[in-house]
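so my prof wants the structure for this chain in the tokens format not the other one, which i didnt know existed until like an hour ago. anyway here's the sequence
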Amino acid sequence: MITSGISRQTWLILIGAGVLLSLGMGLRQSLGLFLTPVTSDLAITAAQFTLAIAVQNVVWGLSQAPVGAIADRFGLRVTMLVGAAIYVIGLSLMAAADGAIALIVSGALIGIALSCTASSLALTAVARAVSEERRSQTLGIVSAAGSVGTLLIPLATQGLLANYAWQIGALFFVLLAAAMLPAGFWAGGADQIPKRGDAKTTMREMVGQAFRNRRFLVMSGAYFVCGLNLVFLSTHLPAYLAICGQDPMLGAEAIAVIGGMNFVGSLTAGWLGARYPKHILLGLLYILRAFVFTAYFAMPPTPATTLLFAAAMGMLWLSVAPLVSGLVAEMFGTRYMATLLGFAFVMHQAGSSLGAWGGGLIFDATGSYDYAWKIGVLIGFAAGVVQILAGGPERRPDPMPAPRLATT
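here's what i got, hopefully its the right format
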């Protein structure tokens, strides 16, 4: 059993990482619920609001590699604690915002905070805390635990937004972010565990190896599409449902269902990743997402189809995290894992920014999300195919057979 023989220190690391993931990702993926009330109250456009989310994702992506390097150099604990404090400050600024500029600054601060607290550093702590044999399944379990926030936070937030000013919902986010401080302290206990990897290899040498590694480059490129599709969905689904005349609560329920099914998807991905090639599993996830997007957006939404779509997407959402983290650890070890995940995450967040802001621009220009989801489907399917065909280890040529002696 995977939980047998785990020390108290390891348990605290895993619990802390799970709480960081749960709160960090739950808060981030619920920000789209504020689009309608904030744009109405502050008299700003959808593109201005989504620009703030795009800035958040750009800053998250650009800062993730430097933050990962800082964590590898000075420790996960101090990095996570500083990040949790910045999260509190950023959300406090959002609660006090009176226009687009304040929201953009808040988004930038939240982006830095996510670099310090969310998936890259949290899963690095998990990978260091357990043996290689347990790594894939443990990453899946902690990623599954991290989906609890995505299940509960949107429902609570929409309930507040339906009955109070949106600023009350933002203050609720501030309180949740404060709970990340003790979680960061626990997860930071991974600093006391020896890092696995070649001790003679410097960080610069390891980064150079990664940028010459075809598997790493293909994985990072496909990660761009992952971010694009998921952040487009979490940002714009509530507004899309409102346009289609659905109850505003349905958007929150859909995000919550995604969070609930994340639990199953992450566990499944961790289990499969321990048994089958991770690059093939990643490619299949991207292809399946493209089919699910097409099936949903090709017809008018109903509560039943929306929740069914959310369940399918939930299975394919955070299931990427244990596979990507496990693949990086498999290729390069855990010594500089936070740094390497950070570089891969730059591509993810470039896609996230395009998904959030690009969706807003397309909607403002056309009054519809049709072009946005169609573009996402096409590049999502292409990314999955490339990940499967080019993301695996190089094939070694068969050795030449020994020449046969001539016989008379």
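also thought this was worth mentioning. The chain has a mean pLDDT of 86.
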